[in-house]
Amino acid sequence: MDWQVLTRELSLYLESQVRVGLFGSGVGLSLVLGFGVAYACYYLSSIAKKPQLVASNERFCRFLEEYCPVVTETYYPTIWCWEGRVQTLLRPFITSRPQVQYRNELIRTADGGQISLDWFDNNDSLYYPDASTRPTVLLLPGLTGTSKESYILHMIHQSETLGYRCVVFNNRGIAGEELLTPRTYCAANTEDLEAVIHHIHNLHPSAPFMAAGVSMGGMLLLNYLGKTGRDTPLMAAAIFSAGWNVFESVESLEKPLNWLLFNYYLTTCLQSSISRHRQMLEKLFDMDLVMKARTVREFDRQFTSVMFGYRTIDDYYEDASPCRKLKSVGIPVLCLNSVDDVFSPGHAIPVETAKQNANVALVLTSCGGHIGFLEGIWPRKCTYMDRVFKQFVQAVFEHGNKIFSM
């Protein structure tokens, strides 16, 4: 949609509102139309922009331009809620929730714990009727997210239309299952993810296999890929709204407005996720002290860093920051971030480091917030993030041989 078309449509809409009584004079009409045109010009000149594609590998760039063209197209954020915080707050409430029927599986871990996997088998797939070779996407939700999150449901819906199978990795103790050991999860420890990836690959060794992680799920996936390099069953990965530098993320979230809008709520979600396992966790932690935390940093200091044996919270945050492992990623990875994401500030995105790894491509939008990326006048269905996900996984599964020889 170009400037003239959008301006004309907005002017016609405003004029129709005037005719039904919004304003009763020619002066009012002129003011409304003038404001509308000015706003449209500002939106088109300063808000709607093509994303920045950062990739040192020209072959990877050409692959994305041909098979995932959405990363080179202008992103038009919803005209009435383009600001990052607003997009972040509205997305869970405004986007639809596609119906998905899961098959749950509980797998045991080496330490005696259990992990809940939710499978969308897509047995009605017309494109891949043979389950043994049906492409499979492993999905990793955010910090306290599960298979019920709207962004996960939309990814599954997109995958269903392409004939793919999906598996959602629910972190320990989050999806309703009991904790069998006093251990939950964190962004730095990849043991559970490694177990899940090998479990899925062993079940379907002939099926093309990739993963997509959102927010903390993306951080965990990046840390896994930085650890394993090329030694992974995954063909490629997609990362959305990952926090690249945890120090910068928590500092941003502790600014007064961000604490009020996000940090305190997220802290209460973390506390809620462990409160039902209090009897198990009290064996190792002062739960009364943990439940008094008022920021994510306080929660991590009293609980997460202690659980995983870090000497200090700074040691944990350094280990959890994917920016420190990006150079070691050994498979094609596409990472989508918005530079106005308060969870992952634009200045902390490792652009220069990404340029040093031929396997990495960053797609940076000027707007979109954290897992927002709303577009369209009434963004109920598909977001820009959904379109990037769909095009990239399809590109990998159907044309991936063109980048795997990079």
TrEMBL record:
Purpose of the protein: Phospholipase that may play a role in phospholipids remodeling. May selectively cleave myristate (C14)-containing phosphatidylcholines through its predominant phospholipase 1 activity, cleaving preferentially acyl groups in sn1 position. In parallel, may have a minor phospholipase 2 activity acting on acyl groups in position sn2. In addition to (C14)-containing phosphatidylcholines, may also act on other medium-chain-containing and oxidatively truncated phospholipids.
UniProt-annotated catalytic positions: S215, D341, H370
Similarity field: Belongs to the AB hydrolase superfamily. AB hydrolase 4 family.
PROSITE patterns recorded: UPF0017
Gene: ABHD3
Enzyme class per UniProt: hydrolase
Membrane topology: Single-pass type II membrane protein
InterPro entries noted in UniProt: AB_hydrolase_1 (IPR000073), AB_hydrolase_4_CS (IPR000952), AB_hydrolase_4_sf (IPR050960), AB_hydrolase_fold (IPR029058), ABHD4 (IPR012020)
Coiled coil: none
Top-rank lineage group of the source organism: Eukaryota
Limits of the AB hydrolase-1 domain: 135-376
Keyword Hydrolase among UniProt keywords: yes
Annotated EC: 3.1.1.32, 3.1.1.4
GO-annotated cellular components: membrane
Cellular localization per UniProt: Membrane
Keywords: Hydrolase, Lipid metabolism, Membrane, Phospholipid metabolism, Serine esterase, Signal-anchor, Transmembrane, Transmembrane helix
Catalytic activities: 1-O-hexadecyl-2-acetyl-sn-glycero-3-phosphocholine + H2O = 1-O-hexadecyl-sn-glycero-3-phosphocholine + acetate + H(+); 1-hexadecanoyl-2-(5-oxopentanoyl)-sn-glycero-3-phosphocholine + H2O = 5-oxopentanoate + 1-hexadecanoyl-sn-glycero-3-phosphocholine + H(+); 1-tetradecanoyl-2-(9Z,12Z-octadecadienoyl)-sn-glycero-3-phosphocholine + H2O = 2-(9Z,12Z-octadecadienoyl)-sn-glycero-3-phosphocholine + tetradecanoate + H(+); 1-octadecanoyl-2-hexanoyl-sn-glycero-3-phosphocholine + H2O = hexanoate + 1-octadecanoyl-sn-glycero-3-phosphocholine + H(+)
SUPFAM superfamilies registered for this protein in UniProt: alpha/beta-Hydrolases
Name of the protein: Phospholipase ABHD3
GO MF term set: acetylesterase activity; monoacylglycerol lipase activity; phospholipase A1 activity; phospholipase A2 activity
Membrane-spanning residues: 20-44
GO biological process, one term: phosphatidylcholine metabolic process
